Amino acid sequence: MKKTTSLFLLAAALFTGSAFAQEKCATDVIHRQYLKENPKLAESEKQFNESISRTLAGMDVRTLNRTIIGTDTIIDVPVVVHIQHAYGSIDYLTDDAVYNLVKRMNNTYSLNYDTSVVIAPFKKYVGKANIRFHLATKDPFGQTTTGITRRFTYLTYGKDDYAKIDQWAPSSYYNIWFENVIGRAIAGGTVLAYAQFPSDYDYRPYYDGVICAAAFIGDGSTIEHESGHYFSLYHVWNSSGAGAGTAGACGDDQVDDTPPTIGHPSGCVLYDTTCATNYFKIYHPWHYVYDTMTPPNIIDSFQVDSLVNYPDTANAQNIMDYSDCEVMFTKGQVARMRAALGSDVGHRRNLCDSANLVLTGALDPRPDMVPKPDFYAINPTGNKMQYFTCPGTDLKFINKTWRDTVTSLTWTFDKGASTPTNTVTNPNYNTFVTNNFSEEGWVSVQMAATGNNSGVGMDTIKKIYVSSPTATPALGAFEEFNNVDGDFSHWPIFNYFNNEFKWQHSGVGLYDNHSMMYTGYDSRVNTSMGIFPVYGTPQGDFDDFYSIPYDLTSFASGACNMNFYTSAASRSSNALDINDTMLISYSLDHGKTWLSLATMTKSDLINKGALSVAYAPLSQDDWKPRTYSIPTTARQSYVVFRFRYIPGVDHNGYQISTGNNFYMDRLHFSQYPAGVEDVHTAGPDVLVVPNPTSNNAYVVVKDADNTTAKIVVSDVTGKVVYTTSQQIAGGEARIEIPQTAISVKGIYMVQATTGSQTKTQKLVVY
């Protein structure tokens, strides 16, 4: 409050809104973080504030109303609202909720209100902004739009800046994002929203705009408050450097008619004189003498000192406070916002440029658009999002169509559905349940939606996996993930959020060139340059793959162990950064409910330390055996296992991926733990793996002399079915026995000769 500029009398306005009592805004905290990361930002902000002050000081009352900061001219601003969701009841906002938001914003910033609730000292300072918001009707590619986007993403769960994906050019659109919850916390409460100031634009253009917790789209003040920041308003206590209500911290906000205040985190103290007693300003305004011409010319000018005795109480009813009774902007705040919209800083001027209003279709009527069909699947028993099912198990499909009122839905199913097509004419219809998939494999589920005004929306197709109706005997079953035909569909993989963190088949393995790999290495994050892409965090992501159904009844008594081998590295040597997790669960009721078997973390997952590049195992020594005991109650005739990998991030708050690639191979069940079967502890010179096998086999030969290994394979009659030789390099060789040579089930003898030594082992083919 140190400006020496005239305060112009602008048109008055007052609006009402619900309380901001429980709301906390992180704009100041974020801004201080930006200042710390970018020292030059402080100078840019200073220059911006000085420019705004000069703009206001240099405007004569006769010319003021002819400029963009004049209050008689309505300033139009194009808006796009991005809904980041995971189909939750909180984060999946309706179109109507967005339309009501924009209507309320316009009431706040444009229309006249009853000023009777404003206390007497501030009645003459109530300001009317005359800023009008419009949902864009043209997207950045010139296509028709409602000005609303939606994205299914795990980033909705508190990922804040990282959730600001799908941004439209911030020089042309005011971007507003909604996520399920704001993840950032500040002292004294939970953050509900935050914004970027115009001066932050050059340092964080890809974050420019406002982000808000979805639950507060309709509370009547949160977005209005954050929009004030977006148009350059500070909190009324801003310069105190502390939170609202901090004792003794009487702050300034670069606006003269908002008296000094400590801020009000809650409540409504209408007459708070803690900081504002005897508050006044002395100005040195220029006075002008005009001739009688049209337009008039200045023929003389002079300065006269004047004193403005502002109210001796804080403006607790200000929308930029946190009180429970915020209802107004002041005239000075209005002048500052409109001056910011006349500035090139943060490209705010371009938002309301007439050419940009045409480009974005801001002034065009809202278009009628065909519905956008959308849905997701859940398990009615567990009520969780799920795209895996077993024969005889219900799946419930939840309709989430948007853009138009739906009059009917048409569902189409393939792969043995008893009712391949079903049309529902109830416009309030929400679910369709089916339990009649009879064929194993991937099922396509399509939904088309007919709108009330605009026709039929194009089909949305999603994939469901139906498991085998027949369980595989677990005893003697080895999963090497090495199908000859390359078809791994019987172990279905789900990359729910369609990103780079996912399960996939790998070209390396324990005994052969096959395994399951979770891609946890993110090469897109460059922390050395301070670049944190909005999609660079995996926190909140999860990915599944499911097993074939197993029959575990042969282990009804005695021990039953799930055994497999893993190989993985981290990207950090700091134990606090090793935060990846794999959850192993099982279902005994055809996928309806899931029970926990094990949770793998830290050393359970990571056995190769830290590696700054993408990790891949190079030898058998890079693999570690893992064993998990199967409860007696779980040894039933139809058991399905789910492997859910949850990538972690660093511990310092940047949410940067610190994981690396994780590999899993040779899953099988045995009465013995995997450690007893470990090929490394036994230290053989010759080993045949996998054994037994129903596919290729490999002879692992160790010889420090690096001689040539000769392999001879004979059947039980002594007939030689395959021979080969290979030079040993690095003390070890892996020599393949192709499946075509051992296609007949039975027992084979594998003879390996290195130098003068010959060893023979049995190979069982099933």
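Above is the first protein from milestone M3; the second protein from the same milestone is given next.
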Amino acid sequence: MRRQQGRLGIFGILCVASLISLSATRALAGNVETLLMPGKVSNAHIKQEEKCGNCHDRTNKVTQTSLCLECHKDVAEDVRTRVNFHGRMLNAGVSECRACHTEHKGRDADITQLDAAQFNHALAQFPLEGAHASLDCAVCHKRGEAWRKATPSCVGCHKSDDAHQGQFTQSCGDCHSSLSWTGGKFDHSKTEFHLNGAHVAIACDACHVGGRYKPTPRTCVGCHATDDEHRGSRGPDCGKCHATKEWKSAKYDHLKETGYDLLGVHADIDCLACHKSGNYKDKVPQDCDGCHRADDAHARRFGPKCEDCHDNEHWHPVEYDHLKRHKFSLEGAHAKLECHTCHTGIAGEQKLATDCKGCHRSEDPHAGKVKGDCAACHGQSGWRADIIFDHDLTDFQLLGLHRVVSCVQCHNSLAFGKAPSTCSGCHAADDVHRNGLGDKCASCHSSNGWPLWVFDHAKDAHFPLLGAHAKLQCADCHREPPGTRKMSQECVVCHRKDDRHLGQYGGQCDRCHSNYSWKGARIQ
């Protein structure tokens, strides 16, 4: 009985193994690669799961990104044209898709892995500014829809908020800001009807009744027919007599009737201000001098053409192109001067100099000792404010610490030309060698500082300072100025008093001694 049960058990195991083997054979026959798949792909890629070659190239991993872009053509176009998020990333075009988007994490895996809190929305070519900055992503991006499909136009999101009901075809941003709909600014001057006078202050609905912007009348009678006291008897062109400022002050076409246009403050003054007799047939002067001679603060020194400097709005500020008229630009301190500071005589009779010395000769602290134009060193904002002298153009360039010293440290006279040009000329008192090494300080020292001396004794003197010599001061050997006597390089010349042999072995001490110490002499 037990033997029979054992046979049945073995038979069952063989049946199960056969079924498993059959299933595996069928699976291998269908797609052997799916058996090696590390995990299910996301729902978005479920159609590509049956064939790994849709996304993977077993022979070349580098081509995986190109396979992604073959399906995601919109992203490929962004990368190619450098637009939208994928085209404006720092690593656009060189990074691999899988660096951000992983797969085989299961059907419900988030392969986008977008960190909304850290996302730089400006890369999507739509910076979140104003009221947009505090919005939740879901307000603009619909659930289940690609993020890129969100409309970038105002009307795409705010069509229901459009108080104009689609009457304006231009962008909402032309009038409104992203902070709020209220406070919109519309430039009416860009339309065919400019707002002047009383039109500037009235509300939009006064003309655009009920928020209707098209069609709106552009003629006076089109809006003001009910205000016409003449009841149409004077025709539809109200502008012949009335101005946009108000109805009551009917205007007179002064230019057409008299040839003199009333501009600026002239348009607001009373008629009797010019027509003093009250008889409008009396001849009235049409030039500035004819009416404003008593107001001329220049006492007529600049002639009768007031309009050369002044306009019809006011006497001040004066707008006069001095550069264009006189080839002399008023800049710096000159721009603040009154005209009478330079123009002391009558215009046309007085010729003014255009160079610095012509006006400022008495202010020259150099007493004429410095040649050339003042502008070579001084600017126009002030004599001391912007000195611009370039010392590098002289025979003595300012290097190192020379650039930070004041002029008076070297130039004790405002003539400037007598300053010494050698190191010893200025630094004789600073010479710790007391002229023991001559006046060519630059051979050893740098203009960046005295301690930064760079003399190469081996190269420049052909005598390397080795051993005990390296610790000596220059004056220990150089007791006379360089050039006065050529120094010998024999040991006995300097060390004759140290010679215990009293000259018995000659002057070539280095045959037995080293330059580190007399002790430890070697006998050859």
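Note on the second protein: The mean pLDDT is 80.
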